[in-house]
Amino acid sequence: MHQTRTVSGYLTLLQVWVYEHFPTLCANCCRLSQVYDEDYPRALRWKPKRDKGLVIPFRKALDEIDVDGICWTPYREHRPKRPFEVVSLFRGWIRWGPKMYAHLPDRVLRQYGHVQTIPGSPLEIVGQTTTPEEMDIMFTQYAVHVVDAGAVVHKPADCAIEYMDCLQ
């Protein structure tokens, strides 16, 4: 939003997520590292440019992007080094120290290589746990809370018909 002046959180991860999923946007804001190896953490793949004048063209490019300009499975070549773990499909609260976050993988199934279906409401997990101890127990029993990923995609933009209907 244009009136926003600050953003909190670990922005490097957000930045890298944008680079991986919207490669057409990267042409003006970053470049691939020449020394990157798939053994390295994925964020080291990118070398951002330090130019503050990119906001307006970046917004314009983002507004004009279509489904073909999105990389739905950006980590495919990285999977042999960092295999997919079923725990990634855990749906519920996760925490880092005193901070707790809702983890909702059913909202981004395409990124996991599955057909996108209608995700559950984020409100379904609110109130499921109230203490850090309850969150820890829920996570240690993550297999009970794993999202049914469903069908594997054949084309990156595959989604269930009812998913597109729910967006309208």
Q: Can you walk me through this structure?
A:
The protein is 22% helix and 10% strand. The chain has 168 residues and is an alpha+beta fold. A two-stranded antiparallel ribbon has the order 1-2. The chain has a two-stranded antiparallel ribbon with strand order 3-4. It is globular. It comes from Cicer arietinum. InterPro entries: AminoTfrase-like_pln_mobile (IPR019557), MAIN-like (IPR044824). This is Protein MAINTENANCE OF MERISTEMS-like.
Quick recap of the structure?
With 168 residues, this protein is of the alpha+beta class. Helices cover 22% and strands 10% of the residues. It is built from four helices and four strands, in the order H-E-E-H-E-E-H-H.
Give the overall shape, derived from the CA principal axes. globular
Structural class: alpha+beta
Amount of helix: 10-25%
How many whole angstroms does the radius of gyration measure?
18 Å
Biggest sheet details: 2 strands, antiparallel
Q: Would you identify the regions where 5 or more consecutive residues have pLDDT less than 50? A: none
What is the typical, i.e. mean, pLDDT?
79
Give the number of helices: 4
**Within the largest sheet, what's the order of strands?**
1-2
Termini separation (Å)? 22 Å
Number of domains: 2
Portion of residues in beta strands equals: 5-15%
- Tell me the total number of β-strands: 4
Order of helices and strands: HEEHEEHH
